[in-house]
Structures are given as C-alpha cells and as structure tokens.
Here is the input.
Amino acid sequence: ELKVEQNPLFLSMQEGKNYTIYCNYSTTSDRLYWYRQDPGKSLESLFVLLSNGAVKQEGRLMASLDTKARLSTLHITAAVHDLSATYFCAVSRRGSNYKLTFGKGTLLTVNP
Amino acid sequence: DVKVTQSSRYLVKRTGEKVFLECVQDMDHENMFWYRQDPGLGLRLIYFSYDVKMKEKGDIPEGYSVSREKKERFSLILESASTNQTSMYLCASSSPSEGEQYFGPGTRLTVT
Here is the structure.
C-alpha cells in the first residue's frame, strides 16, 4: 500500500524566511505532484515532477524529486504572506492509471 | 483552461436522504475522480472512472455509488446519507497520458 507522509503538518514562519516542506512516500512511483489549497477553495496544481533529480521553480517555490530516497521537497524562499495556504504532495500509483495518493497537507502560515 | 465544475458549493441534507453530487469537465478527459476531504485526514479517494460506464472503487467506497453515462459527467450518489458523510467533496479529472488532476471547486455537504 502506498503511503505518503508530509512534514511538518503545520508551519508558521515569518516573512522573508526560508523553509522546506518534506514529502516521503513508501513505494516506487513514477510521478509526484504538488498542489496548493487556499482556505475554502479547491486544489490548484503547482508542480509535476516526472523523474529522478527533477527540479521545478515558480516564483518563491522550488520543488525537487529524489526517487531513490522516495523524497520530494518544496522549498520556500523569502516567504511572503500570499504564500499562506495548505500544500499537498501527491504520488501516482504505478500502473494504476494515475490514481493519486495524497499526503495530509502542510498548513503554512506566513506572518508579517 | 481546464474547467471542472460541481453542481453545488454548499448542500444541506437530512439523514436518510438520497444525495446526488454532479461533476462536469470540459477537457475531454478520460479519468474522473471523487474525493472527500476531512480535517487531519487529507484527501481520500472514493471512486474513480476511467471511461464511460467504467468505475473502480477507491479507498473509502462504502456508502457511496457513482454513475458515468457521458464522458464529461461523473456523479456521486449517497444512497442514504448519514451524518458521518458530512464533508467536503472534490471532483477531479485527468487524461491518462498526463496524469495531472484538475479539481473542481468542491461541494461542502452537511448531513443533519
């Protein structure tokens, strides 16, 4: 059974600081996704990571994937208040027509 | 832009009622999904459909059924709503080649 663990589950940080959210998964997978969810809203796709060593960046967010360690990271650089949201990683189940297993999410609060 | 719409944003139903949640996507995606989202539990897959009239149980199918009569429409049915089905329900769609899931705005269902 594929399990996806995120940590931390809650993250309170100051504007301007850097931090990393970690996503570990338990079995071999071929794709990893990061999503953002604002309060009361749906999920918005941030990144799709397809292969070992993949790195993608958008603004102050950078995601990477290490398939050998079964680990993805979402790095936040110089956080701003607008980044406050819940971030989910999700891993596709190999051979399953891309059904996803989600982590429980990291609630990020960026304080002024 | 991919658009996934859900029939209601908020719904209040009584215990024992039959409830229909509808989802429509406009990107000709083969795959469609129903999730429920609960605090502390993340997103859990209820049912999945990979083609018209085809469906697979997800991780928590008990108490739910689905219908997919047309490619663009995927319905979630609660045959006899119970209070433990109070939740946020999210629909998503994807193409098998991409895997990335696009989410609808969600339906917050309250069963009293």
Observations:
- Chain B has a mean pLDDT of 94.
- Chain B has no helices and eleven strands.
- The two ends of chain B are 37 Å apart (CA to CA).
- Residues 47 and 57 of chain B are 5 Å apart (CA to CA).
